[in-house]
Specification:
Elements lengths: L2 H20 L4 H8 L1 H18 L2 H14 L3 H12 L3 H13 L3 H11 L8 H13 L3 H14 L6 H13 L3 H12 L6 H12 L3 H17 L2 H6 L1 H16 L1
Helix pairs in contact: 1-2, 1-3, 2-3, 3-4, 5-6, 6-7, 6-8, 7-8, 8-9, 9-10, 10-11, 11-12, 12-13, 13-15
């Protein structure tokens, strides 16, 4: 048998033993068997090396690798935790992960169930519920959750929640009220998203000059800002630039 084949088999045996002894997920065994050389390399870099180093960077890389191979693993763990102890935190964590994974309907159910006892009007839960309702296209439900949040928690502040409220109003066709909220957001929102969405509303209402001026303000501020700002908000700055070009062409 060629030496290379023997080395590959030895690597497979070593990695397989590590999977079993360290209690790793069994899908690693399938990967190691199905892709003898590559599977062993991925397992070594993703599991064995970070385990040996024990570094924070290694653990982060491991989590990213796990997510790419098995994106449902966090959900399974959170569901298991909820089965063991049904608390505000476990249900909220599961709802947040479901929303992140694009499952807003189930997320909304868990947010709603978390609104109980002393947490019946908790602002973080209501904000999560509003996000889930918006993702479902239930703009009225989103608006109602946010209005309840503010009514019961008048000192709570969330720029993202405020932006969500403006978007929900726009989704409901209440353009006048939505514009009022966008104007308020435009004065304090940290990134360009709020201004970008306000400019889109203005363009949709036929107020093209105002929309163009707002996009120009976004781009001017970005040019004057630090590189970190442009990197952090690249998505919205690119969208604004494209919208500005379209308006200038009209």
């Amino acid at each position: 048998m060629p030496l290379l084949a023997l080395l590959v088999i030895a690597c497979q045996v070593t990695c397989g033993l590590h999977v079993v002894r360290s209690g790793q997920e069994r899908y690693w065994l399938y990967l190691i068997i199905a892709l003898p050389g590559l599977g062993c390399l991925i397992y070594f870099l993703g599991i064995m090396l970070p385990d040996m180093l024990g570094s924070r960077r290694g653990r982060h890389a491991l989590n990213q690798l796990h997510d790419s191979i098995d994106p449902q693993r966090h959900l399974r763990a959170l569901r298991d935790e909820l089965d063991i102890r049904d608390t505000r935190e476990t249900r909220l964590n599961l709802a947040d992960e479901l929303l992140r994974m694009g499952q807003p309907e189930e997320a909304a159910t868990h947010y709603q169930m978390a609104l109980r006892g002393i947490h019946i009007d908790a602002p973080d839960i209501l904000l999560g519920l509003a996000r889930a309702r918006f993702a479902l296209g239930d703009f009225a439900g989103c608006r109602d959750a946010l209005e309840r949040l503010i009514d019961k928690n008048p000192d709570f502040r969330s720029a993202d929640g405020h932006l969500l409220y403006a978007r929900a109003l726009e989704g409901l066709g209440d353009d006048l009220k939505a514009e009022e909220e966008y104007q308020a957001l435009n004065r304090y929102y940290a990134g360009p998203e709020a201004s970008y969405r306000y400019a889109l509303l203005l363009a949709r209402l036929g107020r093209l000059r105002e929309a163009r001026e707002l996009h120009e303000q976004i781009q001017t501020h970005a040019r004057r800002a630090a590189r970190h700002y442009r990197t952090l908000h690249k998505e919205w700055l690119d969208l604004s630039r494209q919208a500005l070009r379209s308006l200038q062409a009209d």
